[in-house]
Amino acid sequence: MPDHLHLPAPPALALRIARIAAFAARALLGALLIGMVLLNVANAACRYLFS
Q: How far is Cα 2 from Cα 43, in angstroms, rounded to an integer?
């Protein structure tokens, strides 16, 4: 492979920031999913309890 096509490795700080961003995104999406499930369960429970 020619040297001019070789891309340098990203710095360690960029990799760490990318990992933190990925973790934050997964945590946020997981919390939203759990919230949606709980809202759906509350909707079904209230529908049957209060007609």
A: 61
Q: How far apart are CA 44 and CA 3, in angstroms?
A: 62
Which band of pLDDT confidence, cut at 50, 70 and 90, is reported for residue 47?
A: very high
Would you list the DSSP string of the chain? --GGGPPPPPPHHHHHHHHHHHHHHHHHHHHHHHHHHHHHHHHHHHHHH--
What is the rounded CA–CA span in Å between residue 48 and residue 51?
5
Residue 5: predicted pLDDT: 72
With tokens 């920031």, the residue in question is 17
